[in-house]
Amino acid sequence: MSYPNYGQAAYNSIPQPGNPRATEAWALTEAARRMSLAQKPEISEEDMLTAVRLNWRLWTIFQAELASPESELPLEMRQDMLSLCNFIDKRTVEIISDGDRSKIDVLININRQIAAGLFTTPAQAESASPAEQSATEAVSTNDVV
Q1: pTM for the full predicted model
Q2: CA–CA separation, 56 vs 127, rounded Å?
Q3: Which CATH number is 19-144's, of 1.20.120, 3.30.1120, 3.40.50, 2.60.40?
Q4: CA 117 – CA 100 distance, rounded (Å)
Q5: Using one digit for the tens of pLDDT, what is the confidence trace for 34-77?
């Protein structure tokens, strides 16, 4: 079964090619949006699981890139992200096995937090005050999700 059509307005914000950070941030927020909608009790378990599996596939792509010897990320960051990928794997398997929709919250929050960091460019993060950083991050993820 295909994922239910909750309106395609969010697809108007697909990032343009050439900015991998924006693409990854959009993918994470879109997956979070779908999982958030799928938590509603009126959504079938099959459709809820479809949203969770979509998120799992996204994180599997990240995991493959992070494990690649060609990855340009610093080793410590790669290890931290791979640990996060491992957590996502385990939590997703739990959700698939027991169907507990409340366990999706942590996946949504992780996606939103990582996306917020990706929406903030390194130059913005260095020059902005802590209050400005929080405002930028909150606006970016809340507007999309």
Answers
A1: 0.74
A2: 34
A3: 1.20.120
A4: 28
A5: 999 999 999 999 999 999 999 999 999 999 999 999 999 999 99
